[in-house]
Amino acid sequence: xxxxxxxxxxxxxxxxxAVATLGYLGLLHTLWDTDVTKLSFVIMTLYVVITGYIGxxxxxxxxxxxxxxxxxxxxxxxxxxxxxxMGMIGTVIGFLIMLGPAFAGIDIDNSTKMMEVISDLGAGxxxxxxxxxxxxxxxxxxxxxxxxxxxxxxxxx
Length: 157
Hints:
Blueprint: H1 2-24, H2 27-34, H3 39-59, H4 66-99, H5 111-154
Helix pairs in contact: 1-3, 1-5, 3-4, 3-5, 4-5
């Protein structure tokens, strides 16, 4: 179990370094600007909470409470799937932003109106893509932690 806890801690350190690098490069600010729904940050917050929860499960694992432990792990698996689902919801919202009102009353002779349409298309597409990407990355990282958790606990049984 100690090895599983160390692998979890290494994952936390790598995640922290990745977020710090993104912040240093200004990509978190770009993400804030491109995701009009801010759903990407909800997904990342859920990832941080679940990562802490998985660490807590690793530290408090006890074979006497195996059934309760399994139910806690199931909550984490559900949260991982919820991250992917929220990313897909962000994709749909982005497409709605992109395609919804963008073409209403379009006048191809009015260059100002056409620039607004292109701006709406860009905002919708960037929201769709960023929420999908963040949801998939956070879900995958959570699943890797859960596989590590389950592998570490099965070796004790």
